[in-house]
Amino acid sequence: MQAQISSSDDAAIDALYAWLSADRELAGVVSPGPADPTELGGFDIDVVLTHIEAIASLAMSVAAFLHNRPDPERLIITRPDGAKLEIQGVTESTAAEIEEFLRPEEGPEEHI
């Protein structure tokens, strides 16, 4: 599964990319990608998730990033089918919401 993370705040997307790149469990999963032409911002983050554990790691890492930011960030996660999940700040359920949004509909599988 591929996904894209975007924000209209260049500083936020730069910081998130650095945060995700530093996560050993996400090594090779994230890369800078071209920005969506309909959104403001310098670049988006491309995500390639090859197994269920990567989805959980990404969800937890994004939630931890948001928790550690002084101001609530607005992030948009886009699936290949065009569905979007908008996240503003962080709650107790943020990681679970991201994981549910990115999990394949066919049900849990080891590889996706």
List its traits.
single chain, 5 strands, disordered C terminus, five-stranded antiparallel beta sheet, about 110 residues, alpha+beta
Show the helix and strand layout.
Elements: E1 2-6, H1 10-21, E2 30-34, E3 43-48, H2 52-67, E4 74-78, E5 84-88, H3 94-102
Antiparallel strand pairs: 1-3, 1-4, 2-3, 4-5
Helix pairs in contact: 2-3
Folded structure, characterized:
The protein is globular. Strand 4 and strand 5 form a beta hairpin. The protein is built from three helices and five strands. It starts with a strand and ends in a 10-residue tail after the last helix. The chain has one domain. It is of the alpha+beta class. Strands 2-3-1-4-5 form a five-stranded antiparallel β-sheet, with helices on one face. The model is unreliable at 108-112 (pLDDT under 50). Helices cover 33% and strands 23% of the residues. The protein has helices at 10-21, 52-67, 94-102, and strands at residues 2-6, 30-34, 43-48, 74-78, 84-88. InterPro entries: EACC1.
The secondary structure category is alpha+beta
As a percent range, the share of strand residues is: 15-25%
Biggest sheet character = 5 strands, antiparallel
Q: Cα distance, first to last residue?
A: 6 Å
Cα radius of gyration in angstroms:
13 Å
Integer count of domains: 1
Strands, count: 5
Q: How many helical stretches?
A: 3
| SSE order, one letter for each helix or strand | EHEEHEEH
Taking pLDDT < 50 over at least 5 consecutive residues as the criterion, the unreliable ranges are 108-112
Portion in helices: 25-40%
Strand order of the largest sheet: 2-3-1-4-5
Mean pLDDT: 86
Principal-axes geometry comes out as globular
